[in-house]
User: What shape does this take?
Amino acid sequence: MAASGAGSPGRLVQYVVVRSDLVHNLSWNLGAVITQACHAATAAIQLHYSDPDTQRYLAELDSMHKVVLGVPDEAALSGLSKSLTEAGVSHKLWIEQPENIPTCLALKPYPKEAVQPLLRKFKLFK
Assistant: This one.
């Protein structure tokens, strides 16, 4: 599943998954959490810049599609990262420095149908 190629059918989506406990339990302000998601999304694009799906996603600049999901805590985020790695799904786990806190992860752009089943149990971030 790691690389699906530019000829893949379906809409390209970049999924970003954020720890909801940062806001709800640890009192991070929303701006700081949004910044973490931006870091992860940008890093995932940079790491997979030459990937055909990433290039197609960037070429459709005015119609980019992102979905931001929430996970309850660090353990859930780490578990998801492990599951994605095992499934061959390219992503970036963002670890805020210098605190060394895993805050979110972002997948490189994929056709929605290629990765949505792995993320189905997570709800939209709120």
The chain has one domain: 12-124. Residues 47 and 57 are 14 Å apart (CA to CA). Residues 1-8 have pLDDT under 50 and may be disordered. The longest strand covers residues 12-19.
